[in-house]
Amino acid sequence: MRRVVITGIGVVAPGGGGTGGFWARLTAGRSATRAVTSLDARRLRSRLAAEVDFNPRAHGLAPRAGAEPARATQFALAAAREAVADSGAEPARDPARTAVVVGSALGCAAELSLEYAVASEVGSRWLVDHTRAVPHLYDYFVPGSLAAELARDTGAQGPVSLVSGGCTAGLDALGHGADLIREGSADLVLAGAAEAPISVAAMVCCDTLRITSRRNGEPESAARPFDRTRDGFVLGEGAGVLVLEERERARRRGATVYAELAGHAGRAAARHMTGLAPDGAELAAAAGAALAEARLDPSAVDWVSAHGSGTPQSDVHETAAVKRVLGPRAYRVPVSAITSMTGYPLGAVGAFQAAAGALAIRHGTVPPTAHLRTPDPRCDLDYVPLTAREQRTGAVLALGSGFGGFQSALVLTRPA
Fold this sequence. Notes:
The protein is an alpha/beta fold and 416 residues long. Helices cover 31% and strands 18% of the residues. The protein has a 10-stranded mixed β-sheet, sandwiched between helices. A two-stranded antiparallel sheet has the order 2-3. Helix 2 packs parallel to helix 5.
């Protein structure tokens, strides 16, 4: 079987600094959540966010035809450029063997809603005036534009696709990218996810569902997965893109290899849009299938990178899934949620997890779960509270769970 390795990492995350800043923030246990600044949130129930302070010009992203690409697209472009530079790969040298797979839950929905308001005069016109909208309106409407823009930027002419499986989109995009290499459809894949959901529409929806934190007076510590006092997530944004390569190709060109992407699997609860069974059976099934694809026994897992949404039911569900797949050893394996520092960027969370997993393998450090000070008796595993932990990590199991019943898992291993 053709094996898949990670040779480049690019991250645009709250707190800034690219991949280096992302990893430094995680290992220091520093939160990037704050009171939202990009919109007027005074009437909202939850007025918190993990925002990216992003200057497109600093990343060479100049406007075209008088308008800029959507914010999520800008994040994806910046992350992909960093990943390609980090890998030393040259996609344009063999464009037909280069693929792009991007995951996103909402795509460019924030810009689309704003442009609809402009073109319809805030909903007063049934027939909208398209001449009032920006030239990028079509790209805002079609989520696949995220992947198409990356392909244009890198010259990729192989398979190009977008995965929109809700909050598991990042893990699933990486899994699909690895499959393209294994089946022989590509030798080099830019895979990851991008999300820019911090908008009035998205935040009102989260308010209605009561899934975001109301700790408006203490925004820096509001995201506290697995803590007994957790009351929901803090909405985040950003992008993570990884360069995936066929292992022998990477070896021939002398590339630095962070990790091997050894397994991926998905399952569906298929019972409720938002409800999660407390036994975690479907998530455990996805994890077990991913480990089987990686040809790993559960006893080989050294760190579980938790989905860590921070909602009361999700954390219990995830804890149960870890116990089901790891058995009694679950109590001895560190489990931590980087969302306690990055916020919860919907589909991009899996890309952040994969980047953190590869870096954990390379640097021998497991990030903590920040702000975990009050243990929840229903969440009784080792969640690496507050402080990062040095350890040699040979295998990482990353978990994902999303609205619609999507359950996904990804396995990264130390390169052979």
